[in-house]
Amino acid sequence: MSERAEALSEGGDSTAIADEPKSRIGRGKPHEAPVSEAPAPPPEPTIDLEAPEWYLNRELTWLAFNRRVLHEAQDERAPLLERVKFLAIVSANLDEFFMKRIGGLKQQIGARVRELTVDGRSPEQQFNECLAVVREIVDQQRQLASELHGALKEQGIQLRSYARLTEAQRQQMRDYYLLNIFPLVTPQTMDLAHPFPFVSNLSLNLLVTVRYADDESSGLARIKAPVGSGIPRFLKVGDAELYVPLEEVIAHNLDLLFPGMVVEACELFRVTRNAIAERDEDQADDLLHMIETELRERRFASIVRLEVEKHMDPFHRGMLAAELGLEEASEVFEVDGMMALRDLFQVVGVNRPELHDPSHHPLDHPKLSDKRNIFHIIRDHGPILMQHPYESFATSVERFVLEASDDPKVLAIKMTLYRTSADSKIIEYLIDAAQDGKQVTVVVELKARFDEAANIRWANRLEEAGIHVTYGVVGLKTHSKVILVVRRDFNGLRRYAHIGTGNYHAGTARLYCDLGLLTCDPAIGEDLTELFNYLTTGYVPKRNYRKLLPAPKVLKPALLAKIEREISHAKAGKPALIQFKMNALEDKEITVALYRASQAGVKVDLIVRDTCRLRPGIAGLSETVRVISIVGRFLEHTRIFYFLNGGSEEYFIGSADCMKRNLESRVEVVAPVDHLELQRELRQILEVQLNDRRTAWDMQPDGSYVQRMPSEGDDPRSSQQILIELAEKRQKEAQRLKKRKPKGIARRAVN
Fold it and tell me: Cis bond leading into 389, ω under 30°?
């Protein structure tokens, strides 16, 4: 019997997390300690699992997640600029929510969709409930922004109104404006000869009321603040950390744009456009052209939100709402204070280390500190599990592709590309490999939301370098994170692979918690060959996968079968445990299966970052389920699937969340982790996070969340801080063992 099974059957005690944490299933609020004898199987459930009351709404649970993010900004335990960062994240998240989710709901309403969600809500109901919650969040944002503004001022970082500048400072800003910004500003009048102008998504706009000095009648003009393209939102005044918003500099120097005229009013507004403009791929002869067309259409997509400054003239407010096709009562948001708080990311970048979390530098993986050929390391030492951002992306994943491009024994490289950075080294390495005569294939996902334009540019560049570029399978997004390298080893061709939970993006690899597996497992290599053949041809004959669980054909049935297996173990009186870590649980069938598992007596631990339909802790339905959410300095992005399986434990990692779209309409890859050492690493991650007393939130039966607080004797550190320290400990231990290793005759590497 495994340690996990023993812990469940005997009720193990906990040890210090910073060492080797063991199971703490009985720790804390969610679960009672397991007993030595398995309880008798419960009677057959009588609860109707189709009833909408057992399912939480996707949109509202996501907004609940945003409340938890906002709480991080409110938490005085966090350094000041980290709090400002979370405030900016909330604003950016809400922008995206309107663009994607509210935009989608408006489309459903416009199409008169009557179908109810699994939780029993119509599109209209969801739309109205979401807007009500958003208004509550926005109000909390406003109050917090004012509080943080005062706290920043105390630290010598000031966001000051133009009107409060000294005369000398105003002159300085006017001079700067004339030289650097004024040439970029273009006023647009609105009259019979000039129709209402196009207003771009998320742009800051000034509505200016002007008239001639000798004329009582006034006119309107619109000015777009040229934020971006090297122009910051907040302009620095002098050498101190004193900033003034760009829109205020423009507003207080309107005489340069309207010389000799009287400016009666200047009012700020901002619009958010629907980001959903998808066409039918089946009707598209050229997918690349179709996506480019979609991007153009999205630019002109319908407005889903209008933000106006407080005290805007009611007539102007109504005029804007009418011109933009919005319901003034519900879709116009009055902003009391600074608009577009996402721009506070600029302030977060101020060089004040004492106001940030302690700096974190990803470490080299202990096994990859060896300077030998990375393929020899993988072949000789077995599979390697990387934990990002605790361990370096550059010296693992990027190194893997770099050495593949340089190694003369490498014949082919194949990879999927969903998102990557603007200065991607991986792209450069792939181009180098192709120019060196290697066979390089890249499956580019053109429909990666908000990254389509970048991916089109990458696709064109890759094709120009002679790389075989495909766009995946019609009707499916390619969301998997896989690289396959074919190398001629000493005993024939060998396939090496990287399978990850995160994108091949060096920037997000420092900010997101993700896992990556390097392996030369022959079965996984064969499975990936099958997968790439599917991705590059689109042909759908029966494909036999020995180890991988790819979506959309295999993954969901496999998860359901494994859940059913745990149910059978529980009914047989055996210990049974399911643990999932993911971003979202939205799929109804998986949710129903987990409810059935709980009814059978299976213990279920869910670490779900944001959306979760399942309600834990309901008598007769989900008594053995606990759901926690972790919000910390890094974005939790890891997917882990664990099944006790009667003591023959199974661990999986991959790119898929338990969402209907991931399981049924995306190409995802979930891989087993069957090496015992790597399983112990995954166990440690799960235990550390399940026992987090600093950044974990427990979901309540009604769907609300309560943040855990450390009690006396609890570890006050966040799970992410513990994982940082564990990575440091692994590296120090590896260095210690390396120094103790006796020096002998160096083993000759076999190619």
Answer: yes
Identify each DSSP E strand in 336-459 by its residue range.
Answer: 384-388, 410-417, 439-444
The helix/strand/coil state of 666 is: strand
Measured between alpha carbons, how far is 326 from 283 in angstroms, rounded to an integer?
32
Looking at this protein, which amino acid is placed at residue 420? Answer: T
Backbone angles phi, psi at 667, to 5 degrees: -90, 110
State the residue for tokens 């998240």: 93
| Residues identified as active-site | 479
Closest CA to 637 of 650, 652, 655: 655
Tell whether the model's pLDDT for residue 530 goes beyond 90.
Answer: yes
CA contacts within 13 A on the Cβ side of 344 = 29
* Angle of helix 287-299 versus helix 452-464 axis, rounded to 10: 150
In contact, 710 and 716? CB cutoff 8 Å: yes
Cβ count near 384 (within 10 Å): 23
With 0-12 / 13-18 / 19 or more C-beta atoms within 10 angstroms meaning exposed / middle / buried, residue 346 is middle
| Distance from C-alpha of 170 to C-alpha of 162, rounded to nearest angstrom | 7
Q: Would you state the pLDDT for residue 422? A: 75
Alpha-carbon gap, residue 149 to 152, rounded angstroms? 5
Residues sharing a CB contact under 8 Å with residue 117, sequence separation 6 or more, in sequence order: 52, 55, 57, 58, 126
Q: 629 and 705 in contact (C-beta within 8 Å)?
A: yes
So what's the pLDDT on residue 371?
Answer: 85
**552 preceded by cis ω (within 30°)?**
yes
Report residue 441: phi and psi, to 5°: -125, 130
In this prediction the pTM is 0.89
* β-bridge pairing 625-630 and 603-608: parallel
Domain ranges of the chain: 3-58+550-738, 79-355, 366-547
Residue pair 118/60 in contact (Cβ under 8 Å)? The answer is no
Cα–Cα distance, 495 to 364 (Å, whole number): 24
Distance separating the N- and C-terminal Cα atoms of the chain: 40
Angle at 166 between CA 164 and CA 171, to 5 degrees: 115
Specify the pairing of strand 261-273 against strand 303-309.
Answer: antiparallel
Residue 455: what residue type? N
Joined together, the tokens standing for residue 162 give: 């133009």
Q: Does residue 520 surpass a pLDDT of 50?
A: yes
Place of tokens 């490289």: 413
Domains 3-58+550-738 and 366-547 share a fold: yes
C-alpha distance from residue 411 to each of 430, 462, 492, 502 (Å): 12, 18, 12, 26
Does 366-547 carry CATH code 3.30.870.10? yes
- Give the CATH fold of the 3-58+550-738 domain: Endonuclease; Chain A (3.30.870)
Q: Which two tokens stand for residue 42?
A: 């419960």
**Tens-place pLDDT, residues 342-392:** 999 999 999 999 999 999 999 999 999 888 999 999 999 999 999 999 999
CATH of 79-355, one of 3.30.360.10, 3.90.870.30, 3.40.718.10, 3.30.1840.10: 3.30.1840.10
Which positions ≥6 away from 17 have C-beta within 8 Å?
A: 687, 688, 691, 715, 722
Three-state DSSP state, 293: helix
Q: E strands, 142-245, where?
A: 158-159, 188-190, 204-212, 219-224, 234-236, 242-245
